[in-house]
Each structure stands twice: as structure tokens, then as C-alpha cells.
Amino acid sequence: MESGRQYQVDLGNLMAYNSFHSFPSLPSSREELVKTCLQEGSKLVQAIADGVFNLPSAEDPDGPLVKLPPPSTKLPREKPLPKPKPPTKWEKFAEKKGIKKRKKDKVVWDEQTGTWKRRYGYDRVNDDKDVPIIEAKMSDEPGEDPFAKRLDDKKKRVEKQDKNRLQNLKQAAKVGALPSHVKLAATALPITGTQVPSKKFTKDELGNVAGIVATSTASGGKFDKKLPGEKPAKKQGKHRKFLPVVEGSGTGSQEKEQMDKVLNKLISKHSHEILNVDKAINMYNVKKEKKTKYRKNHEAKSSSTSSKLRPKKNINKKTAKKGSASSKKGKAL
Amino acid sequence: MLKIKTPKNARVKRALEKRAPKLVETGKKTLILQGTKTSSTLNAVLTEIYHLKKGGAVRFTRKNDNIRPFESGGETSLEFFSLKTDCSLFVYGSHSKKRPDNLVIGRTYDHHIYDLVEVGVENFKSMDSFTYDKKLAPRVGSKPFIAFIGEGFESVDQLKHLKEVLLDLFRGEVVENLNLAGVDRAYVCTALSSNRVLLTHCALRLKKSGTLVPRMELVEVGPSMDLVVRRHRLPNEGLRKEAMKTAKDQPKKKVKNVSKDAIEGKIGKIYIPDQKIGEMALPNKAKGVKRERREAKQKIADERTSKKQKEDAE
């Protein structure tokens, strides 16, 4: 117990130091020396263990867990302390004006489709593709495509944001507080002259080709002899996946959904073909022509045939046509 | 013009974030390498240090002809390696007539050399030369006990420096929670004279003592060696001050799904995923299914018989 007090124990590093021991004369043999060292060492280790095993412990299936105090021996860091990120231009402005961040919902009610949709990203609300009509305003310039303008505006906004972001990152880089995953790199210099950088095949491309070759036998590469150390081909055939038969509680029938999707796609793709205007006009014209022709023929033959035969249109038509055709032939001959 | 370059996938981003400066640092990694000429003892020393540090060490096995840590201009290559491998401790072995079995242990700060200690290795005994009960063999990556013995570590300048470096080299990661079942190794460093230190690696045998604290017994498992201090270079004062900075306030870990309410107190949210009944595989031989089929058959058979009976009656 007496000796325990004179050791310096650092529980955070599990380190103990005996600053009083010294060899008056080194023992003659190596074994003796090591033995005395180990004896002294075990005393120190015991001192550490006294500290550690007396700490309050929590039971764990792997063994008792002990919470260690922070180390008292100070050792240097390996990297400088991270610097705080300087505020962006907007953050400065917002602070000056007292603008506070508000939380927005991730999903928004879409009135056009009557569903909840994401605010941003895939399948988002008010997507350019989904806006069929843009109402005219007094400020609209005549002869301008509002849809194209919408796209253009969006592009400009994105460009502006990119510019702002770069500016803010430059400011952060000046202080040395660039986020660890961001690098500011000089854009590539233009290649002078007619030199074109030679194209190299990437590992992925080669792998893809090798995979296709390996599976292009009759058996799909199943019975091919493998070289020692050869890995299985990367491109394997497609596996059929079957949809569940029973409906789930949350999502509804997946099969139905899938079919709906396909049908919707088909219909939307061919929606302009459902009423083929050209064809319709053609048909209309042809019918009109026929009618006029028929009328002409009818008028010509009405003198010979009685009006009583009118209901038998078809017979008349045929005979009329045949007659005309034969007459034409006759003329040609 | 500048371009913003960000990693293309999350794996790279994670790797970069791992290397970035942190408020509270995780363990330092050690780079173990050698110069143009080494001796067999030195090779053994380097590999055994690598084995001791496994999990937190990188071993280079090729010759390096332009590393001379103490000379100006001889550290560029070393600093580059430190940057590439993200190691901030290094052990460099070299062997020459002037300094046989030479070991340079050093640390880096921000991938520049921070301090250096040069020691000669003598009386080296490898792990293989020790015989002991293999059940006691320390496990890879366990947190060691470290014991320093001798007043030299306080009074002599170079030994004081060596003590700090050895502690940094062997202590491993700073942990908050220690599993007492995993306590199985100790390093014992004894100052024999003003420039000589005996370093041994021991396993711990925990014996019952009747109290809460078990009786510790040291079993030497090697390696063991004498380190004779040759040259050393302390960090300059400004750099030391900067490197010793610590974060004032520890970053708080965000606790998810736990909120506090004035009336109800602590509230936890539990999310239960949707039961995917549709994807559940039905066993083919379910008894229920069988019974249904059987009953259906029975029904058909019953109807037939009843129809026949009717026909017969007519």
C-alpha cells in the first residue's frame, strides 16, 4: 500500500511510472536483471490494475466494461485542429437581416395529380414535364415560348448558385477550412494543336467485354473449362424475378402497379397517334370524292334506271363501276 | 478558373473524411520501414514491432535510399509516405558501421516531422525464443498496460523524450470504455543507465486474490531488447505548443429518435418496418393449404353424389 502511493498512474493510458527506482549496480547476469525488472514491472501493473478494477463497471455479455478517465499524460496531436467554417455570404446577410431558417416539409401536396410528391428531386412537384399549361400574364412578351423560358430560367438559377458556391468555397479555402471531401482544382488546360488524347480502355470496359465473350457459348459459359484462378464472368445472364402473389399490406399489388406503369407509358407515348389527323382528313376526302363520283354516275344513269331501284345501292354501284371501267378499257383499246 | 472537385462515390468520401483533421483524434497509425541496408536482427525487430502493432501499422518492405531523418532534405520522402499512408508515427531501421542496428522512432505533426529519437538495438530476443503457455498469448489489438521503471525517465533529458515516444507508440487508441476481460498484455520499460533502456513485452496472468482486484503476474512473451539512445531531436517550441492544443468542448453525439417533453419526460420513437407479407415465402407443405385442398375435393365429391342421387330420384 505504501508503494502504491509513490507511483504515478495514468489510467487513461493504462500507464504507470516508478520514478524512485534506480539500480545502484547492475546485476551481473542478464537473467537476474530481467527478473528484477519483471518484479518491479508487476508491482506497477498491479498498481494500474488496482485503479482499473476498482472503477465502476457495467456488465456486458463480453465481460465487465469499465469507463476510463481521460489520459493525464499529454501527447501531441497528429493533425491540427479543424478550423471553423466561415459563414457564407448568405449566412452573413441573413444574420444582418435577422432571417431565420425554417424547416420545410419534404413532401408537398400536388394539386395537378392530387398526390403527395417530393419537393425536390425525382418525381417532384411542379416538374417541368408535368406542367401542361402556363397561364398568360400581362408582363409576358409576345412571341416568347413560356416553356422554353421556364427551362432557361432554371438553368440560369443553377448557374448562379454554382457561382455563389464556388465563391464561398474560395473564401473557406483562404482560411483553411475547406470541407475535407472538397478540392478546388484548376480546370484542365486546353489541348493545343491537333493532338487528341489517346483513348484508353478502362478496367470496367475490358471486364464487360470479357464477360460477354465468356458467356457467348451455347451453354452460356456454364460448361467451359475454367483456368486456375479465373474468376466467374462479370456479366451473367438475366434472372427472372417473380412478383409476389399475395398483396402486401402497405404497397398494394406490385404486379398491378407494374402493369399500370407499362400501360400508362404506352398510352402516353402513342397518345398523339390515337387521333391521326392526317389519316382522318384523308379518309374524309376519299369519302367525299366517292360521294361526288357516285352522284355524278347516278345522275347520268337516272335517265336509264328507274328511281324505284334506288335502295339497291350496291348493285347499282357495281354495275356502274363495271360499266365505266369497261368503257374506259374500250377507249384505251 | 477553379473547379469544385468532390468525390464521385460515398466510399471515397468516407475515406477522405476518415483522414481529415478531427476534434478528437482516433489512434495514430505507425509506418514501419527501412533504409538501404539492414541486419537480420533489425529485420526481426521491425517485423515484430509490426506484429505488436498489427491493425494500426503499415509495413514497407522495400529499400529506401533517400531517407535520412536527421539530415535536412532527407525527410521529404518520409513525409510523403506519411501523407500517403496517413501514418503519424514511424519506425525506421538502418544498419551501418557507425551505427549498427539503428532504429529511428519519430512522430509527425500535420505530415511534417515533429520529433525524432534514435536508438541502437542490443541483446534482442525474438518472440519465438520464448516458451510459455500459448493460452496466455495476447490477442491482436488489445490495449496494453505500460510500465516505466527508473528515475532516469525523469531526470535524463533523452530518456524523458524516449519515454514519451514509446508511450505514444505502444498505447494504441485512446478508449473510453475498457473491457476488463480483454486485459492481457503489458510493456515494461526499465532505465538501466542514463542512455540504456530495457524494453520487454509481457503477457498478463490474472490470478485470484480473494478481493475484487486480481493478482497480476507477468509472463515474458517477447520481444525483449535493450535500446541505447544515440541522437534525439526535440520538437521546436512553437510547433509543440500548436500540437498540444486540444478541443475545449467535445463534440456532442446526436441522439436520434429521443426527445424530451415537459409533461411526459423522455420520449422515444420506435420505427417498425412494413410487414412484407407479399414477399414471404410460403412453405409448400403447409398443413392449412393441404386441408383446404382436401376440403375442396370433398365438396366436389359431395356435390356429385348429391346430383346423382337427384338424377336417380327422378
Automatic annotation (TrEMBL), chain A:
Annotated stretches, region: Disordered: 55-98, 138-162, 217-259, 287-333
Biased composition (Basic and acidic residues) is annotated at 88-97, 222-233
- Keyword presence, Phosphoprotein: no
Q: Which domain of life is it from?
A: Eukaryota
InterPro entries assigned to the protein according to its UniProt record, in alphabetical order:
Ribosom_reg
One GO BP on record is:
ribosomal large subunit biogenesis
Which intervals carry biased composition (Basic residues)?
288-298, 309-321
The record's subcellular locations are: Nucleus
Q: Which cellular component terms (GO) are annotated to the entry?
A: nucleolus; preribosome, large subunit precursor
Q: Which UniProt keywords apply?
A: Nucleus, Ribosome biogenesis
According to its UniProt entry, the function of this protein is described as: Involved in ribosomal large subunit assembly.
Family assignment from sequence similarity: Belongs to the RRS1 family.
What's the protein name? Answer: Ribosome biogenesis regulatory protein
* Species in which this protein is naturally found: Rubroshorea leprosula
Classification lineage: Eukaryota, Viridiplantae, Streptophyta, Embryophyta, Tracheophyta
Automatic annotation (TrEMBL), chain B:
Query: Per UniProt, which keywords does this protein have?
Result: Nucleus
Q: Source organism's superkingdom?
A: Eukaryota
The UniProt record lists the Brix domain at 28-238
Provide the leader sequence positions.
none
Subcellular location per UniProt equals:
Nucleus, Nucleolus
Q: Does the keyword Nucleus apply?
A: yes
* Annotated stretches, region: Disordered: 281-314
Protein name (Swiss-Prot/TrEMBL): Ribosome production factor 2 homolog
Q: Which species expresses this protein natively?
A: Rubroshorea leprosula
* Organism taxonomic ancestry: Eukaryota, Viridiplantae, Streptophyta, Embryophyta, Tracheophyta
